[in-house]
């Protein structure tokens, strides 16, 4: 079997590195996690000429080998550890023809690590448009490398790149410039102290403030004792190194690259005059946002309904086909209903991810960050917080992860803490059913009351996030360097393949990650609701039959199911918490739905469905709705009134009811402290808001 | 008085003369914000913050509080 070549794709953000990855590996790719951290690890397999195979890793985008974030850390850890099973046989540095100057900085650093390196100059189709001509042989000689001119958009140069990868052994290992010249004495001493180590690697280990995990730990300690320079001196040297690299790059490009400014066009500046304009910029942004939400709810309705109905009939079919018994019930009411509960979220989430992918691929998202930074800064957030706050409207889990590129720890933490206030799609089923139950149908100025209520809930969610951020900013005593740098890339027409793969992969992650939890909860819930201690539960059938001799058929079945539920384990819990939730206007049954909702909000409707013994009709909202509307207290008062309805809506708007989000926050903040603050704080706000609403309105 | 990047007007071009490396993130240096490199203000958000710049061919945005630590000379009026 021929040996597999390990290839690492490295490059600055916005160079189209992922497009190159997609062109090389197509659908032969998978996304995992680096052990212990939530950074995505993208791997793929590519067939090369002459039967050779390449294992390709798409490393996170980075501007240099000086890591300033978790994602960038991954790149350095891999490149400094020759024992890693993924250590590249050949590094492919992807650059963008329009930003060669800046992209080459990283390239020269990688070259210093003496790893065989190929330079990909991507987006070569834009050269004519930009008036750029390159002297490739000259550049190859100066940079000590082989260059592949690639255009993933026009599908050019990929075969040449594959050929270069196959022949990686012919690549020069010489650095393209001698960085050690910045302080000869110091580097000579370093070389003498560690004769067996690569000089540039030592330098990187010395200058990084980041933790290198288990890599090079001993070496780092050994070097600590050698340290002869203060941190300020090292910083100055690093700056000198960067200047030196830029001098080399500028000199090289002066000869190897010509830009004819007369033929160069710059669409970016023209577009930015409008899109980042003080007034029009904001107008356009809000129009885009409105379109997005409109699309998420309009387009998603049909596939969601279809999935919902399909699972309901599948559950029904299972129940009617398999022999009756506990196992059939578990399958139909627990597992199938549980999976259905996950699947119905696919359409809205996929559409939202589609929009976010389009905004990011096109380069527009950076403009939004630019426009919003000033406003967000006042609330202790960063312009970059906009991305999590927008995607939080689909699901808080990817949103919390999207906060990762916020440079300041304090701003990032606040963003993570307030993101769950935004109205995620799991709240929607709860909102829809309660609004239709308690809000009158009329309209005001042509605007329907029910739609207005829904919109108000979205605004409340967003405003609460912003106001909480403001308070947290004042309360949290965290010293963290606040800075903000964002690149404004050229606008690009998004590549269909990239967008499709992103949507596919993110949706898949959501389904499997969230799905596991929802599935587990619904199974546990089913057990707790289906079994109970004592005679009241086990002998329910006889008790009800003797009490209601006149009843028969469905009504009798419903009555028995309800009685069983009241005395099941979950019923006992519901009764126990009733005193706490009574002031909010809820009975014990809503209490159970609240308890199960702490696993995931969307369980609410399903729980009520079970509780009101609707049985096999599953998630059919009309049926549940009519049961809810008919639900009365023993004195004949309705359970769902305007007061208790508004109280419930507010509770769901504020409460932290999502275990998956708590788990992700724990992973991202590396401590249980923050998710616990979220859980307690948000639920407290929810309780107080619901209490006030009910007591005022009742 | 020395001019900083925070003083530059829209459409003006300048050259960076010095950067205070303690106050500005290293990442910004790596993106080309170094002495000798050219700089141009392309666009500002309301209240002139953040600033959208072209530094050495790279288009990026930074906050004003960072810009005051970058000294410049204006090369056209």
Outline of this structure?
The complex is a heterodimer of chains A (698) and B (77). Chain A is α/β, with parallel strands linked by helices.
Measured distance between first and last alpha carbons of chain B: 17 Å
Query: Biggest sheet of chain A, open or closed, and with what strands and sense?
Result: 7 strands, mixed
Task: Note the run of SSEs of chain B as H and E.
Answer: EHEEEHE
Reported by name, the CATH topology of the largest domain in chain A is Rossmann fold
Q: Which consecutive residue ranges of chain A, at least 5 long each, have pLDDT under 50?
A: 212-217, 613-622
CATH architecture of the largest domain in chain A: 3-Layer(aba) Sandwich
Number of domains of chain B: 1
Q: How large is the radius of gyration of chain B?
A: 11 Å
Distance between the termini of chain A: 77 Å
Q: Structurally, how many domains make up the residues of chain A?
A: 3
Question: Helix- and strand-based class of chain A?
Answer: alpha/beta
Q: Mind telling me the CATH superfamily name of chain B?
A: Ferrous iron transport protein A (FeoA)
- In CATH terms, what is the architecture of chain B? Roll
Name the chain pair with the biggest interface and residue counts per chain: A-B, 42 and 32 residues
List the uncertain runs of chain B: none
Report the total helices of chain A: 31
Pairing-aware structural class of the strands and helices of chain B?
mainly beta
Helix count, DSSP H or I runs of 4 or more residues of chain B: 2
Fraction of residues in H or I helices of chain A: 55-70%
β-sheet strand percentage of chain A: 5-15%
The overall pLDDT average of chain B reads 88
């Amino acid at each position: 079997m021929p040996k597999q070549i390990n290839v690492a794709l490295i490059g600055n953000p916005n160079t189209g590195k992922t497009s190159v990855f997609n062109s090389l590996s197509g659908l032969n790719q998978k996304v995992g996690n680096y052990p212990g951290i939530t950074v995505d690890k993208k791997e793929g397999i590519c067939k090369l000429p002459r039967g050779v195979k390449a294992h390709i890793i798409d490393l996170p985008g980075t501007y240099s080998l000086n890591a300033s974030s978790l994602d960038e850390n991954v790149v350095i850890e891999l490149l400094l550890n020759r024992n890693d099973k993924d250590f590249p046989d050949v590094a492919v540095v992807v650059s963008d023809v329009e930003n060669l100057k800046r992209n080459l900085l990283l390239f020269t650093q990688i070259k210093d690590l003496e790893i065989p390196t190929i330079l990909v100059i991507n987006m070569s189709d834009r050269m004519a448009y930009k008036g750029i001509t390159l002297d490739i042989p000259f550049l190859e000689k100066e940079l000590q490398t082989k260059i592949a001119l690639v255009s993933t958009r026009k599908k050019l140069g990929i075969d040449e790149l594959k050929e270069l990868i196959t022949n990686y052994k012919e690549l020069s290992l010489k650095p393209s410039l001698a960085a050690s010249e910045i302080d000869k004495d110091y580097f000579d001493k370093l070389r003498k102290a560690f004769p067996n180590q690569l000089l540039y690697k030592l330098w990187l280990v010395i200058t990084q403030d980041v933790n290198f995990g288990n890599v090079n730990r001993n070496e780092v300690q050994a070097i600590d004792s050698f340290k002869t320079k203060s941190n300020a001196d090292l910083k100055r040297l690093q700056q000198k190194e960067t200047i030196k690299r830029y001098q080399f790059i500028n000199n090289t490009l002066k000869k190897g690259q010509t830009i004819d400014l007369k033929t160069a066009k710059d669409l970016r500046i023209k577009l930015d005059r409008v899109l980042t304009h003080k007034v029009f910029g904001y107008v356009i942004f809000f129009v885009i946002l409105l379109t997005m939400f409109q699309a998420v709810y309009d387009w998603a309705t049909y596939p969601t309904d279809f999935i919902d109905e399909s699972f309901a009939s599948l559950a029904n079919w299972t129940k009617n086909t398999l022999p009756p018994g506990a196992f059939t019930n578990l399958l139909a009411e627990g597992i199938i209903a549980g999976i259905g509960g996950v699947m119905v979220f696919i359409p809205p989430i996929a559409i939202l991810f589609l929009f976010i992918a389009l905004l990011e691929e096109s380069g527009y998202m950076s403009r939004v960050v630019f426009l919003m930074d000033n406003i967000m800064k006042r609330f202790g957030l960063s312009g970059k917080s906009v991305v999590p706050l927008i995607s939080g409207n689909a699901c808080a889990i990817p949103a919390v992860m999207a906060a990762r590129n916020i440079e300041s720890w304090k701003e990032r933490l606040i963003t993570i803490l307030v993101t769950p206030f935004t109205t995620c799609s799991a709240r929607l089923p709860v909102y829809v059913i309660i609004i239709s139950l308690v809000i009158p149908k009329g309209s005001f100025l042509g605007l329907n009351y029910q739609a207005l209520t829904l919109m108000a809930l979205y605004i409340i969610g967003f405003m609460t996030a912003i106001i909480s951020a403001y308070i947290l900013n004042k309360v949290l005593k965290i010293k963290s360097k606040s800075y903000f740098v964002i690149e404004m890339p050229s606008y690009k027409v998004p590549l269909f393949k990239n967008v499709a793969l992103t949507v596919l992969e993110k949706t898949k992650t959501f389904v499997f990650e969230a799905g596991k939890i929802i599935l587990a909860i619904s199974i546990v819930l089913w057990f707790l609701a289906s079994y109970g201690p004592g005679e009241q539960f086990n002998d329910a059938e006889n008790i009800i039959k003797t009490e209601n001799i006149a009843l028969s058929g469905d009504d009798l079945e419903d009555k028995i199911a309800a009685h069983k539920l009241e005395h099941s384990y979950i019923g006992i819990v519901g009764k126990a918490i009733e005193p706490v939730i009574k002031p909010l206007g809820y009975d014990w049954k809503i209490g159970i739905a609240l308890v199960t909702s702490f696993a995931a909000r969307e369980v609410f409707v399903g729980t009520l469905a079970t509780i009101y013994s609707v049985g096999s009709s599953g998630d059919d909202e009309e049926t549940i709705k009519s049961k809810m509307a008919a639900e009365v207290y023993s004195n004949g008062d309705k359970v769902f009134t305007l007061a208790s309805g508004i109280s419930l809506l507010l509770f769901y708007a504020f409460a932290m009811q999502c275990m998956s989000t708590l788990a992700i926050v724990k992973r991202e903040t590396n401590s249980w402290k923050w998710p616990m603050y979220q859980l307690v704080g948000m639920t407290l706000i929810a309780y107080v808001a619901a209490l006030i609403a009910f007591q005022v309105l009742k | 008085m020395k001019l900083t990047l925070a003083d530059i007007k829209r459409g003006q071009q300048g050259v960076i003369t010095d950067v205070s490396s303690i106050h500005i993130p290293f990442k910004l240096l790596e993106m080309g914000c170094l002495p000798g490199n050219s700089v141009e203000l392309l666009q500002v958000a309301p209240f002139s913050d953040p600033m959208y710049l072209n530094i050495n061919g790279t288009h990026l945005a930074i906050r004003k509080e960072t810009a005051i630590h970058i000294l410049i000379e204006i090369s056209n009026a």
